[in-house]
Specification:
The complex is a heterodimer of chains A (246) and B (94). Chain A is mainly α and 246 residues long. In chain A, 67% of the residues lie in helices and 0% in strands. Classes of the chains: A mainly alpha (246), B alpha+beta (94).
Chain lengths: 246, 94
């Protein structure tokens, strides 16, 4: 494999693992959401994300093999998506922070020089536009709701806030893909991202959380202790019965 | 949580040119989330191209106790069905 190909595969894994892990996380709400309708909303988000992961990991190699037979150090997802669900407000905070970033990225990825990525982005951008919209609406309702919902929403945002800088980190792999026109440069939409979040928080009557020491490393396989606990139930069946099929 | 939310009736237009039809109901705190809940609950399998939601309390329903006087008089009026005409073969779409 030539170097640019290795970089491309790495990028596919980063995007694919983001979707895979957040999809699995949201799936944990199934049967536990605060209302039946919200249960369906979160399950629909999860299925959209698992669908994206299937396409991206399938382009990187064998999707099932990559999803079910890699361990923590080999996963390239950002740290935000592996954070525990917490309460509904923290799940919404995580979704707002991730979907806003993913939407801005996918809008630009439709202009990639890579044919697969442009076609992928054109399909996924509509799904993610809806995730972003609904996460914004819930943030506004919880923030501008009761004293308890506002407190929980603020706590959820505070928990997730330190994982934002990682979304805009550019390392050598990404730098090369940006130069080749394959990947958008996230630094070019960080201002728009911050402005978009500020607008949602203003409407939610919430103060932006104080900036915290950023935590980085997911793209290099340096994950929190939470990721192993996602992989254990997700991978159990394929690891116990390798190659098992329906 | 949803126990505190009002109920909304959901209507779906399955494709262009057809009328919206009643699909069911959802709980939601306001109109915009009612649309989102209707979308997430009733259009997961490409059931529709347009959605309406209406607060259930705004629906005015006929009284079942008056069903006799409202609907039974129509039973004996078969001449209201256009079955006494021969339709020429050349006339389509009737």
């Amino acid at each position: 494999m030539t170097a640019p190909d290795a970089g491309r595969v790495d990028y596919l894994l980063r995007l694919g693992d983001d979707s895979l892990i957040l999809g699995q996380r949201l799936g944990e709400w199934c049967g536990h959401a605060p209302a039946l309708e919200v249960d369906l909303t979160l399950a629909n988000f999860a299925l959209d994300l698992i669908g994206q992961a299937t396409l991206l990991l399938g382009e990187a190699g064998d999707a099932d093999q990559l999803a079910f037979h890699r361990d923590v150090l080999d996963l390239k997802n950002c740290l935000l998506v592996e954070q525990p669900n917490g309460d509904f407000a923290r799940t919404i905070a995580r979704q707002l922070l991730f979907s806003t970033w993913q939407h801005l990225l996918l809008q630009r990825l439709t202009q990639s020089t890579d044919r697969f990525l442009t076609e992928f982005a054109a399909k996924a951008v509509k799904e993610v536009a809806y995730h972003r919209e609904l996460a914004s609406e819930w943030t506004i309702r919880l923030g501008d709701g009761t004293d308890e919902s506002a407190r929980r929403m603020a706590d959820g945002l505070d928990w997730c806030w330190r994982f934002i800088p990682e979304l805009f980190e550019v390392d050598d792999v990404l730098e090369a893909l940006i130069a080749a026109g394959v990947a958008p440069d996230p630094r070019q939409f960080e201002d728009e991202y911050r402005r978009s979040l500020a607008a949602v928080l203003a409407e939610a009557k919430l103060d932006p959380p104080a900036e915290q020491r950023p935590i980085l490393g997911g793209r290099r396989g340096h994950h929190s202790e939470h990721l192993g606990h996602i992989l254990a139930p997700m991978q159990y069946l394929q690891r116990t019965y390798p190659g098992a099929k329906w | 949580m949803s126990g505190d939310w009002p109920l909304w009736e959901v209507f779906i237009r399955s494709r262009g040119g057809l009328s919206h039809r009643h699909a069911g109901s959802v709980h939601a705190p306001d109109a915009q989330l009612a649309l989102a809940h209707a979308r997430d609950t009733y259009t997961r399998r490409q059931e529709g191209v347009s959605l309406w939601v209406v607060p259930s309390k705004e629906i005015v329903a006929s009284d079942p106790d008056h069903a006799g006087e409202l609907f039974e008089p129509a039973e004996s009026k078969i001449y209201r069905h256009p079955t006494f005409y021969d339709i020429p073969d050349e006339v389509k779409h009737i």
